[in-house]
Amino acid sequence: MAAQPEPASGNSRTSEAGAGWTCAAPGSFEALVPPRTRRLFWYRPSTLWRSRNDVVARLFGDPSNEIRRAWVAALAERGTPAAFTLQRTAEEFSFVLMGDTGEGDRSQYAVVPALEQIGAGTDFLVIASDVIYPTGDSADYPEKFFRPYCGYPGPIYAVPGNHDWYDGLRGFVRVFCDLRDEPGGGHARPAFGGPLAGAARLLWRAAAPTDEGVLDAAREAYRGASVQRSVQPGPYWAIDTPHLRIVGIDTGIDGTLDRDQGAWLRGVSAGPKPKLLVTGKPLVVDDRHRPGPIEGGGTVDAIVRDPACNYVAAIGGDIHNYQRYPVKAGDRTIQYIVAGGGGAFMHATHVVRRTRTVAEDDFRCYPLRGDSLSRYSKLYGQWTRMPGLFELSPREATAAVRHRLGIRPGRGYDDAPPSLRARFVAVALGVPRGGRRRWRFLRLPVRKVPQWFRSELADWDTPPFFKSVLRLDVTAGELRIRCFGVTGCGDHERRPPVEDEVRIPLVPGTSVR
């Protein structure tokens, strides 16, 4: 088994210092950020126009299934086995997992020093969703993938997110599958149906040209060691090991699997060996069930919950925070985890209602709801230039969350009631009342608003960042999953705090109870 990282003695559940609100030393990540790096602003018209395929797919139909089939056919023609499975023979191994990484600015580089500590001695790294923002272009891989992770010594595998699909998956397949021969020469536009098909084809953004020389040079310069090189079978894949099968699926833009991938998933999921699902779209998130439809019928979650398939956990990106739901499925418990804190702007956790999917005491999230509300209140204070009205300390925000949701505080604060101002801010920034959403007319944009507006408000370049990285350690009898918090503080870079941990027995035909 690989050497284990030594975690910090405290975390966000024990103190404000553990959450990164008070940094004893600045983070070293600033020195890693390339010169003249531009912060990713989603509200720029050029960025919005480049990202338009998301809107086109949601208005006229998602063509991801058709495009994926073409890519898979090209991979098969090259000689990729239909099983899309890699074999690893080690009885014990470790790997790192994080989602939604590729903004290319300080919020991504803040994760790198902690990643090198958390990932020390691990065998490989998995990125779950959105390797590259904003549109997955191959031209962005040198500075948003190869360079940031040059220090990780093992291979990196990935499942694509919706942003990786905005160039038709061209950059992703080129980098991770090493496929240079593209279907249709890389210039064909997908077929749309209906009376507005012509408009959809006209609006659809074609992939930008790939500069093979630049990509090859970047790989050689930053991740050129033989132990770092890897070629995964396709946009979906499996890694088979003696005691655990890791299954990665491609959820396209809208979260639907094509019929062929669905058949492959059913096949690779069969049998009693314990399995872990990695997906671009989480199946349970924000206390809501998103089962993941499969073209032709059925859902991803139906497969995960089938006792004959013996899934012990399902981990997804897309939402930029950490959440864990230990859900009962018959006489088993399946761990549903959101792991999208790998570098992009933070999605709020304070909008998560008092949980119904699982008991509130069994639910875990990072950042804590009070820290999330405090961070957003400070952002709104800056944006509106009314800090006296909006800004809440972590203590004030935690009290307001406790009052609204009726839950115990995340750390050892007293039970003093929140001020009237703190209650107003909690309502305005979307904290539900006892699990119900009331006073909607008072709520300001936090979650369900246009992406460019939400992202701008939820992006910052100073600690605490509230990013997260998972480390998974596998033995013959156990899968251990730990969520390490990434604050951006120098005192946490060498010893990242453990925010959550779960141990799952690995026995064929059973899972944690």
From TrEMBL:
Pfam families: Metallophos. Gene3D superfamilies: 3.60.21.10. Residues 94-172 form the Calcineurin-like phosphoesterase domain. It comes from the Bacteria. InterPro entries: Calcineurin-like_PHP (IPR004843), Metallo-depent_PP-like (IPR029052). One of its GO terms (molecular function) is hydrolase activity. PANTHER family: CALCINEURIN-LIKE METALLO-PHOSPHOESTERASE SUPERFAMILY PROTEIN (PTHR34211). This is Calcineurin-like phosphoesterase domain-containing protein. It comes from Actinomadura rubteroloni.
